[in-house]
Amino acid sequence: xxxxxxxxxxxxxxxxxxxxxxxxxxxxxxxxxxxxxxxxxxxxxxxxxxxxxxxxxxxxxxxxxxxxxxxxxxxxxxxxxxxxxxxxxxxxxxxxxxxxxxxxxxxxxxxxxxxxxxxxxxxxxxxxxxxxxxxxxxxxxxxxxxxxxxxxxxxxxxxxxxxxxxxxxxxxxxxxxxxxxxxxxxxxxxxxxx
Length: 194
What we know:
Layout: E1 6-8, H1 18-27, E2 32-35, E3 41-44, H2 49-69, E4 72-76, E5 81-82, E6 88-89, E7 93-97, H3 98-102, H4 106-110, E8 119-124, H5 130-141, E9 148-153, E10 158-162, E11 169-172, E12 176-178, E13 187-189
Parallel strand pairs: 8-9
Antiparallel strand pairs: 1-3, 2-3, 4-7, 5-6, 7-8, 9-10, 10-11, 12-13
């Protein structure tokens, strides 16, 4: 099993189209694959069992809230999105307002939708370095449509909250984290995540 991300640099002549990259990801479904805006392939092993459980403890409450709220859709960590820079990213959990999602064509929804979610969550696993995750969050915050992001650092029991154009906020060992006002009424109980 891979312990960290492998970065493959691809010569410009060999860069994949969006359709080719989608197919590449489908035939290598045992790996988590993202693509940077410069075309580098970022290859990660599936998460370990404990991290997968913690991701579920984030996604589950988000999904339940989204179903009750009805104003948007929740997405799991296996969902890829194409950012405005051409990068393809897969946050550990995400949520998109229905009006933004419904503006996409059925074809766009089938592959890596060309949209950055309104809300993104990244969970730091034991093998992750913090700096690349912080850079990923900053990349999300430069995207049209994104409103808030959470970087959950289990190792240090911190939650970094990101908003476009604002400095990050760091919560030390919070019992809960609120999605207000972007996700009104969504509160994540951190005891299931730590």
